[in-house]
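2024-03-11 09:14:02 INFO queue: dequeued item Helicase ATP-binding domain-containing protein, len=510
2024-03-11 09:14:02 INFO validating residues
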Amino acid sequence: MERRSSSTSIYDLLQKKIAKCENTLGKFEKYLQDQINKQKYHNTEISSKSGNSVRNSQYGVPKKSKANLREFNSDEIKDDKSGKLKTKNPLKSRILHPKRHWKEKNLGSITSEIESDLHKAAPKTLLSEKTAFVTSENEEMLSGSEYIPSGDENVSEEEMETKKNCITSKKNNVPSKKRREKNGKKSKRVIDDSYLENYIKRIQKWKKERLKEKHRKILSGEDFDSDEDEEFERFEGNYKIPLSIWNKLFKYQRVCVKWLWELHCQQCGGILGDEMGLGKTVMVISFLVGLSYSGLFDHNRGRKGLGPVLIVSPATVLQQWVKEFQQWWPPFRVAILHDSGGFRGKKSALIHNINEHDGILISSYRGIVDHLKVLLNYDWHYIILDEGHKIRNPEAQITVAVKRFQTPHKLILSAHVGASPIRSSFSSDPLSTNLTLHILFHFHISQVCGNACFHLKGSPIQNGLKELWSLFDFIFPGKLGTLSVFLQQFAVPITQGGYANASKLEVKVY
Ligand SMILES: Nc1ncnc2c1ncn2[C@@H]1O[C@H](COP(=O)(O)OP(=O)(O)OP(=O)(O)O)[C@@H](O)[C@H]1O
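2024-03-11 09:14:37 INFO prediction written
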């Protein structure tokens, strides 16, 4: 009798716990609900304000203006006499037209070499692979112009790849983004959240799965008492990061998240220069999660929590970013500003929508140049450049474009470790040279900027101090002065200090 009553009471307790799970809104559930409401709120607000000009519930675009923007439909032609729209015979529209030659936009770069390389491509290359190649190369060109980068740029791609793979495999077994792509494991295409319905559907599905998992844990006795979602790691300044993320991070990744928080507090940007595959994407996502989760008031913006974020990355890894976001923190709304994304409409509408909802917009480098005017209309909280060494040429179109964004919160992610013109003037031992280079940059720059804005594990500096200046001018505009002053006061003495015939002062600076 006693045994039965005790088992009944445990059963009751479990039932109660499950019911509590479903009914009570924990802090995390509230946060989640807030995120969804944030997405929905703006649409309802607009439609109630707008009166006659009812807005399109999806993108906040007035229907009136949408009618005016009616796109030209090739199946419709105007009857000259009646002026009415007539539908063209669909059979007639199947006439083949002469091949159109695609004229490449002149971005002032090394086109001829790339084109000739394309012709040399192996005959069995799939069309899709070729397209991807062309896109990424074109993006390279965006940072090219007339400038010829030095150092490892001349090393063949294969050599570079083996070099990078060696670094990654040495460090750990985590595969880098590019390697995963090259290995050809065709991963499933992700659906981004450019449409609100997609986002809500995804969140509902995720919530159900979470609840199921929680039930399972409770029933199996793994997680009887803890309310995992409400646990977090807290830092100075009340920055909180959920333990569900914090516990998954490696030690060096935790250090990085703390460092990013310090930068945030100091209102300045930074360069995250860890080597390939060490999880730069994951570190940045975790940091953003903390900002969103803590919901701290930002005096500069006059708003709470995380605002809209713009991430610029090579076109080949846009999907990868969405995947990582959805894996690490599903409550974020993440959309791709590129034809490879899910959005089929005017890009300006997508930019507007994501911005209004404090979402995350991921764009290619070309996308930034193409939509710069629209993008500049909005107040982005964070601008993050993946493979940020693409802005190493100070005169390139893309460099000039990204430097026009006003936020103090700018990050560069870059894994480039390579030769430098300065390095060649040091000892022949690559290890000690690399170390010297690292300390040198750290030493000199920290004198100018203060220690906190620097965190280099690898060095994104391939081609000397002009490139260094360009990167720093993005993360902390004006801190190193103008380019000419910087070259005169720092670059020249630093370079000359390494020579045998250097003066005492030059050696001191060096
Ligand atoms: N703490 C972690 N736990 C589990 N997986 C992780 C962790 N950190 C990173 N990863 C995984 O390792 C892989 C590589 O990480 P990520 O893409 O962030 O590296 P990266 O430094 O940005 O690479 P790249 O230099 O190629 O851009 C990803 O699949 C990511 O999910």
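2024-03-11 09:14:37 INFO annotate: The mean pLDDT is 68.
2024-03-11 09:14:38 INFO item closed
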